[in-house]
Amino acid sequence: MIGNAQTGVAVKPVLLDKGWLPPNAAQGDMLAQLEDAVSREVSADCRAIGFRSKFHKLLVEFVQGDSSGASLIAKVYENDRGKAVFEWQSQLWEAGFRPPSAYTVVRPAGYLRQYRTLVQEKAPGRAVADFLFAQGGEQVFGGAARWVAALQASGVTGESRATQWREMMKRFRGELLEALPTSTADIEALVSEIIKGLEGSLAGPLVPAHGDLHPKNLFVAEDGRYSAIDLDTFGLQEPVAEVAYFLTQTAIIGYFRGGSFSNTASCRARFLQTYEEARGPLSRERLGLYSAASFLQSLHYEICVLRNRKWDISQPWLSNSKRCLRGEIELAEGG
To answer: Which of 60, 228, 267, 286 is most buried by its number of CB atoms within 10 A?
Structure first.
């Protein structure tokens, strides 16, 4: 067992403007309580140095000892999901996803049941996304592919998420149709074709998958260690699903940061080549299928979840979802 789990009655958080807090508690009091619990149950002499809210979670950074000490991140959940994440990270850590291996997850330090809080190591290094336009970026993305290959070969167990994409597509269809009524025909056709494809035979046995792996959720340190964060959707999927999702998210990050899908082509090519060298060739039909689904997932996230009114991305996203279903590797820049 890594760390300790504090017992006690769970405190249901409520959403305030600056994050999740226990009911009837001032923000400062809550942070003081959490600081005391982390110091008592996880690592002595910790103090909170910063916090921010992220959807339905509050993230608090702690430093151990003086300001030069190691940092921990506490994630306060609205439910008990953090306990499952702690158990998955512990499984991975004990299965060898820890130093001196180059392919790791952040160290799970403990789970505080009373506060529904996962405490873990702060990821060392920089996000892989920071290397997209840097010299040597292709090499960094090759390392990211080896991280995926190592995870899939780890044999770690988890809940099956084989039907996850199909269920998501059904939900996304209704919400996207409401948000983008002028794209009704495209959305209906795409979702129907994707669901039909997902209902077919799986391309190989299910393997461990991060579930939300993109270049902002994978960090690389100066010593070459790759560390994944945010394993909230960890589970078992067919191998191609994680690869397609990572490739699509890489292209999307490049579009938002540099105004183009093509500016990430070399990093995406290196990622796919390195992965297939390690794990064998992937079905291009399944790769296109999951890439198409990933574009729709991203469109739903931007328009329906973030509600950021980025209406102009709808046509490039829908157009490239179509291209992926046709097996076209090169992404189009416009609608």
So the answer is: 267
Domain shared by 10 and 131, yes or no: no
Indicate if 184 and 73 belong to the same structural domain. no
- Tokens, residue 60: 């608090």
CA distance 280 to 152: 12
Domain CATH code at residue 204? 3.90.1200.10
Backbone angles phi, psi at 219, to 5 degrees: -110, 150
Alpha carbon of residue 156 to chain centroid: 18
Dihedral sign from CA coordinates of 151, 155, 160, 165: positive
Query: Would 114 be classed as within a structural domain?
Result: yes
Report the C-alpha gap between 294 and 292 in whole angstroms: 5
Per-residue pLDDT tens, the chain, 335 aa: give them.
233 333 333 333 333 333 434 434 556 677 788 888 888 888 878 888 777 777 667 888 888 876 556 789 999 998 889 999 999 999 999 999 999 999 999 999 999 998 899 999 999 999 999 999 999 999 999 999 999 999 999 999 989 988 889 999 999 999 999 999 999 999 999 999 999 998 876 667 899 999 999 999 999 999 999 999 999 999 999 999 999 999 999 999 999 999 999 999 999 999 999 999 999 999 999 999 999 999 999 999 999 999 989 999 999 999 999 999 998 877 877 65
- DSSP per-residue codes, 76-105: E-SSTHHHHHHHHHHHHHHTT-STTSSEEE
Q: What is the 3-state secondary structure (H, E, C) of 51-70?
A: EEEECCEEEEEEEECCCCCC
DSSP annotation string for 243-309: HHHHHHHHHHHHHHHHS-SGGGHHHHHHHHHHHHHHH-PPPHHHHHHHHHHHHHHHHHIIIIIS---
Domain assignment present for 106? yes
- Is residue 102 domain-resident? yes
Q: What's the domain range around 21? A: 5-121
Residues in the chain: 335
Question: What's the CA gap between 30 and 24, in Å, rounded?
Answer: 10
